[in-house]
Amino acid sequence: MPDELLARVPRELRNRACICEDCVNRFWKEKTNHKSAKVLAGDFYFDHGLMVFTAAYHLRRGYCCSSGCRHCPYPVESRE
């Protein structure tokens, strides 16, 4: 969970309130100026029926989603 998003939780609710998936998605949309990275041919492949994004796609998207993606090109400290 990005520190910037956690900082939006009021101090009295920290470590007691949860941040829902909608709030996390809204945070990333704001962070990327509401631009979604278009998925192009070569941005992914399938492994045992699962779609796996390439590092090139992650770089074009412009941020780490902190989901532990296999080909995440961002430093570990930016994933926390």
List keywords for this structure.
alpha+beta; 2 domains
Number of helices: 3
Number of strands: 2
Distance between the termini: 6 Å
Structural class label: alpha+beta
SSE order: HHEEH
Report the sheet-strand fraction: 5-15%
Poorly predicted runs: none
Biggest sheet character: 2 strands, antiparallel
In spatial order, strands of the major sheet run 1-2
Oligomer: single chain
Helical content class: 25-40%
Describe this structure in words.
It is a single chain. With 80 residues, this protein is of the alpha+beta class. It has two domains: 1-34, no CATH class; 37-80, no CATH class. Helix content is 28%, strand content 10%. The mean pLDDT is 80.
Summarize the structure.
The chain is an alpha+beta fold and 80 residues long. The protein has helices at 3-6, 21-31, 55-61, and strands at 44-47, 50-53.
List the helices and strands and how they pair.
Layout: H1 3-6, H2 21-31, E1 44-47, E2 50-53, H3 55-61
Antiparallel strand pairs: 1-2
